[in-house]
Write a structure and sequence with these properties.
With about 210 residues, this protein is mainly β. It has three helices and eleven strands, in the order βββαββαββαββββ. The longest helix is centred in the middle third of the chain and has 7 residues. Bound molecules: ligand MTE and molybdenum atom (MO). This is Sulfite oxidase-like oxidoreductase.
Length: about 210
């Protein structure tokens, strides 16, 4: 028997196993909703960058980056899915070209307000549909849903996409983020139902 295969980011009416449709768009996160202060906000790319420098964008600069859209569902690990959203914002690939990682980089830590974080394999980050969203269905995100910026990684569970994201760190080894340290799966592929860290197999993540 072969390994089950991931559906990846295939679109369709089908939901990942164990998920059910949720009408509307619930708000799900840990902790308070941060207040947005445009003059204090910046987006930072740091860690093992190709040129060894940190890169930063003010809110005004970030807003001027090339805008793209992606259609994607949100799958919460608590088993509801919000489907059919069109996300607008800056593709992760765009940022990667503007501030490239060194060749030794294998993983990315995505950092948000209050120290919330989530780790991704570089390949998840560079996936075609991974997007730093400012908009949903043509409207600016609301504060509860991550304004001014959230990450959407269509092919992974929604906790892999921090709301109120403030930057990324290029890493040369994997390190667990906030939920990945607290019992959730290090990779988090919903098509493989990788919900909890106890399901991890060797090679899926750093020792717990
Ligand atoms: N900063 C931050 N981002 C977060 C979370 C969080 O606790 N903090 N929760 C994640 C989880 S578990 C889900 S399901 C989605 C929910 O997004 P929504 O509230 O816009 O539906 O946000 C994700 N992003
Ligand atoms: Mo979630």
């Amino acid at each position: 028997m072969g390994q089950p295969e991931s559906r990846g980011d295939a679109l369709g009416s089908q939901l990942p196993p164990g998920q059910r449709h949720q009408r509307g768009w619930p708000v799900t996160h840990y902790g308070p909703v941060p207040k947005f202060r445009p003059e204090r906000w910046e987006f930072r790319v740091f860690g093992t960058t190709a040129d060894g420098d940190k890169h930063r964008w003010s809110h005004e600069e970030f807003s001027a980056l090339p805008y793209g859209t992606v259609e994607a569902d949100l799958h919460c690990v608590t088993k509801f899915s919000m489907t059919g959203a069109e996300w607008g914002g800056v593709h992760a690939r765009t940022l990667l070209e503007l501030a490239p990682p060194a060749p030794s980089v294998t993983h990315v830590m995505v950092w948000a307000e209050y120290g919330f974080s989530s780790n991704l394999r570089l390949s998840d980050f560079t996936a075609e549909r991974t997007i730093f969203a400012t908009h949903k269905d043509g409207e600016l995100l609301t504060a509860e849903h991550g304004f001014p910026l959230r990450l959407v990684v269509p092919h992974l569970y929604a906790w892999k996409g921090p709301k109120w994201v403030r930057g990324i760190e290029y890493m040369t080894a994997d390190r667990r983020g906030f939920w990945e340290e607290r019992g959730y799966h290090n990779i988090g592929d919903p098509w493989l139902e990788q919900r909890y860290s106890y399901q991890e197999e060797r090679g899926d993540g750093p020792e717990l």
